[in-house]
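User: Um, any thoughts?
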Amino acid sequence: QVQVVESGGGEVQAGGSLRLSCTVSGLAFGSYSMGWFRQAPGQEREGVSCVGYNTGNAYYVQSVKGRFTISRDNDKNTVYLQMNNLKPEDTAMYYCAAAPKSGWYGGNWDRPDHYEYWGQGTQVTVSS
């Protein structure tokens, strides 16, 4: 049974930082690209960042470039999202997702239907 568990969310003031973690069990972690998505109330789910299964490629939505950094530790089956200089518009539920390397195409990193397994989410709230 695959489990995807996010942690690290919380409430911070604008300009602050948070580090999200996502630990996965029940699959060959090194064979999965890992993505972070977010969804604010009334909005569609948005791809925030992704790190490819080969660890060599990282992708970011334009609005977080230079502020967020994604990384993965294959020994710990964990992917991280370091979020700095947070803004109120970053407020959302953040979800971690896993996409198998079979059929992986980096150009589709921000498509939710490209991912097979999802966590329950962790809330990030940024106050002004």
